[in-house]
Design goal:
Length: 377
């Protein structure tokens, strides 16, 4: 997203917007993140400076054309231009989504779609947000069935790809339920179509690869897992990163695809090259440590964790690196040192500002620590 935000075409917004970027893990940002219910990166908001009310919300990346429409929509919400009832309901949905109130966002988006009707200009975007909110609020059947009903009729663009992604993700949550199998027959070929579309945002294309691999794994279709994994890795290897942020994003995807393929050795050379290119970036060391550990190269994983710990920016990253290190130590048979590392990881996890992330990490590390303690008795 940084490359998109730096596009010269956005110069006309100078003086109309103040750009603010917040690190998800830095302690000083936690109050803002908690207030706005941020659990997903990237999350984008247009905020009214008078009261910090979100007048437009986007979870996930945007193309340049989508970003300009997002900014215009947010500005309209700030200056109070006249809206149709559908537009007003859509704005309410955005505000609820920005607060992490996903159930309320679902109802607002449902009202917007009902009021706007089939020719409403914002319908495709609203459908994508509606299904995303359904997915986030653990309503997978409604999400998948909406996507299967609406996606075939949509114009083939980014809104189509986003809707299909939500639908396939919800299908995979339910695996073999009858409604999931019915939606899968419609959505799986549409996901393959979305991957091939030039309009599909790269982040969404990567997530589509991932969801199709999940789907194939659920159905024990190893050939299809390998097919999508090979295509994904080929695209990653063919992409020349424009900056360190983009390099880090590619590395995250490499670890994901290698895990699904069960072959971490395929991505180790690229991850090692990234750490050499970004020696002060903890994320590069973290991704390398994950892959080294998955490849049973435990000494190398511990060393990568130690390099990353020198550059962490907050408690989430520290807890993550320490957890990887502890697991590698356990595999090496060094249980006493692993317990000490897990105790440190738990202290870091307890400092994570975002409650959902804090609770999830504290529970996982506490479980690992208990298992290590029991094994030593």
């Amino acid at each position: 997203m940084r490359a998109t935000l730096a596009d010269a075409g956005l110069a006309r917004y100078a003086g109309r917007f103040v750009w603010l970027e917040l690190d998800f893990d830095k302690p000083e940002n936690q109050e803002f993140l908690a207030r706005h219910g941020v659990t997903y990166t990237p999350s984008l908001f247009v905020l009214d400076p008078a009261d910090e009310r979100a007048t437009a919300t986007q979870l996930g990346g945007l193309t340049l054309s989508e970003l300009t429409a997002f900014l215009e929509r947010g500005e309209r919400g700030v200056i109070g231009r006249a809206k149709t009832p559908a537009d007003a309901a859509l704005a309410r949905g955005d505000e609820m989504l920005a607060r992490g109130q996903n159930v309320e966002a679902v109802e607002a988006y449902r009202a917007a779609l009902r009021s706007g009707g089939p020719i409403w200009p914002e319908r495709d975007r609203a459908l994508g947000l509606f299904t995303w909110a359904l997915w986030s609020s653990k309503q997978p059947q409604a999400c998948a069935e909406t996507a299967a009903a609406e996606a075939p009729k949509m114009k083939r663009g980014e809104s189509f790809s986003r809707l299909v992604l939500s639908g396939v993700g919800c299908v995979n949550q339910a695996e073999s339920a009858p409604w999931a199998e019915a939606a899968r027959k419609t959505l799986e070929p549409l996901a393959a179509e979305a991957i091939a579309l030039p309009a599909t945002l790269r982040d969404h294309r990567f997530q589509l690869y991932q969801q199709l691999m999940y789907d194939a794994a659920i159905h024990d279709d190893k050939a299809t897992v390998a097919h999508w994994g090979d295509l994904w890795l080929n695209e990653l290897d063919a992409t020349k990163p424009a900056n360190d942020d983009e390099r880090s994003a590619l590395d995250v995807a490499r670890v994901d695809v290698a895990g699904l393929l069960g072959d971490p050795s395929r991505v180790l050379p690229a991850l090692r090259a990234s750490e050499r290119a970004m020696p002060d970036n903890y994320s590069a060391s973290l991704r390398l440590a994950q892959a080294e550990s998955d490849a049973k190269r435990y000494d190398e994983a511990v060393a990568a964790c130690d390099r990353g710990l020198k550059h962490v920016t907050g408690p989430l990253a520290r807890a993550w690196l320490l957890s990887i290190k502890a697991d590698a130590l356990i595999q090496k048979g060094e249980s006493a040192e692993a317990r000490s590392v897990l105790e440190e990881a738990l202290r870091s996890a307890q400092q994570i500002g975002v409650k959902a992330s804090r609770d999830r990490n504290v529970a996982a590390i506490s479980k690992a620590l208990k298992q290590t303690q029991q094994a030593s008795k």
